[in-house]
Fold:
Amino acid sequence: MALPFVIPLDPKLHKFVSLLLVLLASVGLLSTSYANEGAVSKKAQASLGVKKRPKTVAVKPQPRAGAVIASKPSFGEVAGLHAAPDALALKSSVAFVIDQDTKEVLLHKNELAVLPIASITKLMTGVLISEARLPMDEMIAISQADVDMEKGSRSRLTVGTKLSRGELLHLALMASENRAAHALGRTFPGGLAAFVGLMNAKASALGMFATRYVEPTGLSSNNQSSARDLATLVNYAYGDATLRELSTSPGYQVEVGKRTLQFNNTNRLVKSPDWDIGLQKTGYISEAGQCLVMQAKVAGRKIIMVFLDSAGKLSRIADAERVRRWMESNPVSAVKSAPMAHLADTVLVVAN
Structure:
């Protein structure tokens, strides 16, 4: 085999050639492999004063500090429902308040608009579970099927967690726990599809003809209803002592393995001494806005309140407070005479 032809170089010239090879490689004019063939080690490069090129890292642009990121508008905002005026300057685009005993309408604003109702859905879920008279001590395991793949919401009930049906119902109504509500529907006799079918059948039986359910949590924006229908549901659910107790519970603890998890009510008004609340449920997804339904005693009257598509995290609570103070300062006559925005007796569908 022929030996490679090598020209002996002066040591100073060898050092110069080696440096030239490294410099050419560093600027991309010579492949790294060819430069390595020049037999210039890292130690030698250091001795020659050659600096290592910094690595380039792709950096995703970040929003500047204090920048406001626009949130997805609710269906009510898109439909322009927030433009409807009302005497109390409510932040909810939909409001409906009635006397529970006489069914007298005390306040109404866009009450026939059909909108996503978020976790208000769980009130119907609770109705069916309670009326089914299933064993409340039966243990149910949270499965992967209960994980929210639509909105990506979090839950402290990890897959494999085992709780009783009664505990899951408590968390669904009080803390609006999505995996708990889904597990209740999934393990219902006949399965999830049968459960959703019963939800819709129950709505029809109650005369809630503008209402539609597609799942038991409210995470889907296809769960839709009107404020008038939801007032009917609240009135019906109030007749169930279990639902009254669980939905107004301030807090609840569950044992999960070696841990004790504390859950709190999503409605801070249940802890307020200014309120006498008999039943409640909150809800929120971006398409629905902030939602709240309640049965409460105000100014000596049992009333049902429905607020949908409220703008701002605390606005639904503030709207309820506005109505309470208004009724307490005008216990009878002013409620009737206040000029409230309203729709005609036709259903306005604004959800797709």
Residues 76-349 form a domain with the Beta-lactamase fold (CATH 3.40.710.10). The first strand starts at residue 92 and ends at 99. Residues 60 and 66 are 18 Å apart (CA to CA). Residues 11-26 form the longest helix (16 residues).
